[in-house]
Amino acid sequence: MTLYRFLINRFYLTLAAALLLAVAACSDDSFNGPDSDGGAGYIKIRLSSSSHGSRAGEVDKLNENLISSAVLCLSTLTSTDDMPPVLTQRFSGLTGSTEVLEVKLTDDMRNALFPDNAVTCKAYVVANLPDGPSSVTDGMSVSDIRAIAVTSDFATSNVQSSFVMDGDNTVTLLNSGTTAESVSGKIDLQRAASKITIAVNVPESITVDGQVWRSERTNMSVLITNGVQSSAVNPATHTLVTGDYYNTTTVSENQTHRQRKLEAGTDTKFTYELTSPFYTYPNEWNPDDSESPMTYMTLMVPWKLDGEDSYRTCYYMVPVIRTGNTIGRNIHYRVKINVNILGSFTPDEPFTLDDLSYTAAEWGSVPVDVDIADYRYLVVDQNHYTMDNIESTFIPVYTSHPTTVTNVEMTYYRYYTTSQGNEKPITITTTQYENTQTPGYGNIWTCDFLNPDKVDQVNPSTGINFSHKLVVWNPYNQRNESVSLTNLRSDNAVNTAINSIWYYRPSNDPAYSRYDITITIVHTDKVGKPDAANFTKTITITQYPQMYITTRQNYPVKGASAVQGNMFVNGYQANWYGDRYKWYMTYGLSYSNVTNSNPNQYVINITQFDSSTDYIIGDPRSLTINNLTSKDDFNGTDADSAPADGWAFANDMSGTRRQLKYYYPTESGTDKANWIAPKIRVASSYGVCETTNTYIQDQRRCASYQELGYPAGRWRVPTVAEIEFIMYQSQKGRIPKLFNTDIEYMSAQGVVSTTMTNGKLTVPTDTNGSASVRCVYDEWYWGNDTIVPNNNGRYSFTWGDRERTNPNPTN
Q1: Cα–Cα distance, 427 to 424 (Å, whole number)
Q2: DSSP string covering 100-114, please?
Q3: Distance between CA atoms of 565 and 551, rounded to whole angstroms?
Q4: Measured between alpha carbons, how far is residue 114 from residues 119, 122, 547 in Å?
Q5: Quick check: 363 and 331 in contact, CB under 8 A?
Q6: Cα separation of 606 and 374, whole Å?
Q7: CB atoms < 10 A from the CB of 267, how many?
Q8: Burial class (CB in 10 A: 0-12, 13-18, 19+), 341
Q9: pTM of this structure
Q10: Positive or negative CA dihedral for 382, 73, 790, 572?
Q11: Coil vs helix vs strand at 616
Q12: Pairwise CA distance, residues 221 & 232, whole Å
């Protein structure tokens, strides 16, 4: 796992940065979205910081809803939060509480964001970073951005310039392939901080032991203790330390950091209010520890005894929340106080009031000039989570009321339901989930909401506990018969089999597909009520096992005399070039001798292996350039052909016309025989060989192989372990057979027989002999740096090789 992350960080980040230069060269430009032309040809993301504003025409005087700058990150739907986005775009000079971020949609960007016929991608936005949009540098992942430290001068009574906010959602590709093509989506931003206000009812006088005390209501003020001024964009990623807290005091050298005066308000009962609110980032404390930094306020009311000349200040302790020990994010807490008793005259020992009423709501969910009618909110830090090779997770939720999980939906994927091997989503229904529990086969998943009454000392938070064991759950029908979803006759047969699933049984086999999970939560007392939607949240999770498969189907285009896929060898896309050029030949799926006609590419993702295997996750490519230009048999039988003339002249990714220049073939040494790259794309059967080729010819075939948007100069001959591992997936019925058992194949270490002994191939001792080859592409390295088809869906032959920026990742 460590090596995998190291390789990703060192190589993929570099390539992502190169892609950003290609598709978003203006990433530091300033835009004001609403003034830009939108619609066709644009990515348009609508931002909102509040579902309600103030009265029509009234300015947000406290800047609580202001979006002054933003950073937009767009990633593929299957990317994880710790991977760099495809696009990072910065915006400044914004002025509203709603904004539209617009980016020109180029062909390269569309292809990078929506690979494999996807129609949605992920969007994340952070707004109002204290140090500006430049705080986000190219190559930073969404996880990195969420962890950016933020500090705000919340102790000041001055108006804040803005508030850090973030949000995420999926956005949609519309009218793909047409002149009206665009990307559209909406993101509701959440502030990292919360807001605190109070309103006070103090009588003109009270009588204590027969003596009359008169209040000086025009000089009432309030302090805050243990507010939080330092946190992170997503406060859940930050651990509080002593220096993160702030207090206001009556003796602060900074006048704006002293007590805040209460002003006359419009309420007929609670006539004085805090018009300069307190703000705080989330805080959590131990209620059983008097030293734990609980956030609270101190109300100061001057009283004068009849017959005396001077006022004496009484101090009242005002907790920010009614119950519990957590202050969340993006919540407006409001406390109404009835003061009908003298307080403490000692500042360090404020009197605790009993006559308090608390209301709270999601900040921005009600108009800023309307009184909050209930103590009710439900806030999540983010809408989408990734579980990367873990089986359980806790999702923090800030909630005012007991909350219930009302629905869980899980979808898994299969890749060999028919001989075509297309990806097939299968959703587990509620009935199937419950039927699995009945005979005692356990829970396919567990998903519970941890309410305050269930809080333990290990995890004193409210939120969702979700777990799902990463094993294959095999389907059974109502007659207790196993339901096969492998190599069925037709799509109709597949759908019939899926519809017959009654329940599942767990196996000991590890999972091999991603899982898409949707969880719906709602305040328990609102379930089934007309206003339930106002207190409902939906969270999505993508869970990845240690090895998982994805696929993309190639499609035919017209060739010279046969139906070809979108693939080339050395610039050629036809089926015959004579004996001199046999390693060039591309027969496609129509060739009569083809026994494997699977049009799909398969992507194998590996993050770690069990300790029982001898596989090594790493980069099996050479550290030095070898463009395979020796005169030895470059063009079939024409050994005297000048080698430099053998490679096709074609444009590279930057539009420069050239030949192969920076090729790094797979290492041929047996010490790399058990190496497997962390993420490889396997060529489809459109790349079938007409005949066997020598080692150098197979190397050259892969060096100049191109399929769909994955350019030439990057494909390579697989290692023995890579062939072996792919064959094992076929033997387990996870993918169709890609390596026929009656044919020898070329590995980087030489010719291998596909007859396995105890699940292992015999490692060749030399590179003599000839064999067919199925090339692989290092997707872990090249990522989304792909080429774009024309309007007819056809690709041009393109050299994609580049010089390695870090040739030795172990240094």
Answers
A1: 10
A2: EEEEE--HHHHHHHS
A3: 16
A4: 6, 10, 22
A5: yes
A6: 50
A7: 14
A8: middle
A9: 0.82
A10: negative
A11: strand
A12: 30
Q: Which residue type is seen at 740?
A: N
* Cα angle: 317, vertex 323, 325; to 5 degrees: 85
Strand partners, 558: 563
| pLDDT one-digit tens code per residue, 204-242 | 999 999 999 999 999 999 999 999 999 999 999 999 999
Cβ–Cβ under 8 Å, residues 538 and 475:
no
CA angle in degrees (0–180, nearest 5) for 286-289-291: 105
Residue 478's Cβ-count burial label (10 Å; 0-12, 13-18, 19+) is exposed
Q: What are the C-alpha distances in Å from 266 to residues 274, 282, 370, 450?
A: 12, 30, 11, 40
Alpha-carbon span 732 to 768, nearest angstrom = 31
**Token pair recorded at residue 581:** 């050029």
Please give the sequence-ordered ranges of beta strands (E in DSSP) within 400-462, or none if there are none.
Answer: 403-414, 424-428, 446-450
Token pair listed for 661: 């220049």
SS3 692: coil
Q: What is the DSSP letter of 329?
A: S
Lookup result for tokens 């100061």? 300
> Nearest to residue 561, comparing CAs of 585, 531, 579, 595?
585
Alpha-carbon span 376 to 372, nearest angstrom? 9
The CA distance from 584 to 641, in Å, is: 15
CA distance 748 to 676: 12
C-alpha–C-alpha distance, residues 222 and 296, integer Å: 10
Q: Within its chain, how far is the Cα of 484 from the centroid?
A: 33
**Half-sphere exposure (Cβ direction) of 702: Cα atoms closer than 13 Å:** 29
Q: How many residues does the chain have?
A: 811
Compute CA 355 distance to the chain's CA centroid, rounded to the nearest angstrom.
Answer: 46
Q: Give the C-alpha separation, 421 to 553, whole Å.
A: 9
Tokens standing for residue 411:
């979808």
H-helix or E-strand spanning residue 664? none
Q: Within a 10 A sphere around the Cβ of 131, how many other Cβ atoms?
A: 11
Q: Which residues of the chain have pLDDT under 50?
A: 1-6, 9-38, 52-59, 367-372, 454-460, 559-562, 578-580, 592, 633-644, 807-811
> Cα(435)–Cα(440) distance, rounded to whole angstroms?
9
Q: What are the pLDDT digits (tens) for 625-652?
A: 999 986 554 444 444 343 445 889 999 9
H-helix or E-strand spanning residue 30: none
Distance CA 48, CA 101 (A): 11
Burial class (CB in 10 A: 0-12, 13-18, 19+), 306: exposed
First and final C-alpha spacing in the chain: 18
Q: Which two tokens stand for residue 327?
A: 């202050």
Burial per residue of 77-88, b for 16 or more beta-carbon CB atoms within 10 angstroms, e otherwise: bbbbbebbbbbb
For the chain, which domains are there? Answer: 42-191 (2.60.40), 194-375 (2.60.40.3690), 379-545 (no CATH), 549-782 (no CATH)
Question: Per the structure block, which two tokens stand in for 254?
Answer: 């900074």
In SS3 terms, 343-384 reads as CECCCCCCEECCCEEEEEEECCCCCCCCCCCCECCEEECCCE
Pairing assessment for the beta strands 536-544 and 384-388 based on DSSP bridges: parallel
Place of tokens 């359980």: 392
Phi, psi at 413, each rounded to 5°: -135, 145
